[in-house]
Amino acid sequence: MSAVHRASKDRQDFYRRIDKAHVAPLWEVLHGLVTPEPKTPCLPVLWQWQAMLPWVLESGKLISAKEAERRVLVLENPGLRGRSRATHSLYAGLQLILPGEIAPAHRHSQSALRFVIFGDGAYTAVDGERVTMHVGDLIITPSWTWHDHGNPSEAPVIWMDVLDLPIVELLDAQFMERPDAESQETVRTEGESYARYGRTMLPLDFKPRSKTSPLFCYPYERSRESLAELARCEDPHPCHGHKLQFINPASGGPAMPTIGTFLQLLPAGFRGRTYRATDSTIYCAVEGKGRFKLGEQTIAFDAKDVFVIPSWMAHQIEADTDTVLFSASDRPVQQALDLWREAEG
Ligand code: 1HN
To answer: Which residue of 61, 156, 177, 217 is 20 to 30 Å from 69, comparing CA positions?
Structure first.
């Protein structure tokens, strides 16, 4: 037996003996653990609205919101199948609520956002205050707040849910609770939170109850107006067009501690410069039409499509018509831990 073969056999034998005691050699895996750049299993993926809409409506014939608790088709990243996630750190799904239905109240440690895609007039109630949903609205349910949904309108309503489930799972910090009653008692008037926190003002005795924004609805009408005004005032950023982030008005920080949320306007004919960042990002096109170029691959999107751009993947955005994109990522977590990086060009 050669010396090399002998050494290899001795090593394999050693690994087998220590393996029984749940011990392993670092040198066999080190290069996979500490890589020069992010190496994510998350893949670029596009869920076209045209394909999703019939499936989401079909799910409405198969199960009620009550039986399902939440009637959602999970958007599973093809590189992470079976793990209920759109990126390594975020869950996303399309939720349907039919006229007259109620999705019963519960609360959990995970933070959630709803981004309304289709239909008008359903509501989410957060800690006793209802907010009516319109297409393009961003609604957040902070960690451990009671929330239920209902649809008093005449037509189906569909929104995208994004939750920080994988982050909370990583930390093994999840709790969940269901109340005795199905839907919450309304204890505040609709619009109360918006009046207090929605117009860059705060009550004099305001004390933050959590790191999450006390404002839980960001109406599209307002954010869209800001982008339209910006487009009249500034040149578009060479990579992002006109882009704003949703904030917690009481802190100036992100609306949620775990999920960053953004809205950007790309003027018709926009040809973005190459960009990449370490936060894998879930996009939902609100208006318009365009594409993300990722080297050999192109993600051509239309209004209401959802798609994912993985961490550190260089891309260029192009828009054929005036285009508005909503996006969500784990950026606040990375920034809190001094991990976030971006690069242009
Ligand atoms: C949840 O609570 C909702 O409240 C939606 O609408 C999707 C996915 C996983 C865990 C909890 C909701 C969810 C969820």
So the answer is: 217
Res. 183: pLDDT tops 90: no
User: For ligand 1, is residue 96 a contact (CB within 6 Å)?
Assistant: no
- Given this model, what pLDDT does residue 180 score? 79
For residues 342 and 73, the answer to whether their CB atoms sit within 8 Å is: no
**Residue closest by Cα to atom 1 of ligand 1:** 70
State in Å: Cα 70 to ligand 1 middle: 6
184 has a pLDDT exceeding 70: no
pLDDT-derived band at 43, boundaries 50, 70, 90: very high
**pLDDT score, position 3:** 87
Q: 265 alpha carbon to ligand 1 midpoint, in Å?
A: 29
CA of 103 to the centre of ligand 1 (A): 10
pLDDT at 7 over 90: no
Instruction: Tell me, using a 6 A CB cutoff, whether residue 147 lines ligand 1.
Output: yes
- The token pair that represents 278 in the structure block: 């370490």
- The pLDDT > 70 percentage for the chain reads 99
pLDDT tens-digit readout, 54-99? 999 999 999 999 999 999 999 999 999 999 999 999 999 999 999 9
pTM over 0.70: yes
Fold of 45-344: Jelly Rolls (2.60.120)
For the chain, domain boundaries: 45-344
Nearest CA to ligand 1 atom 8: 163
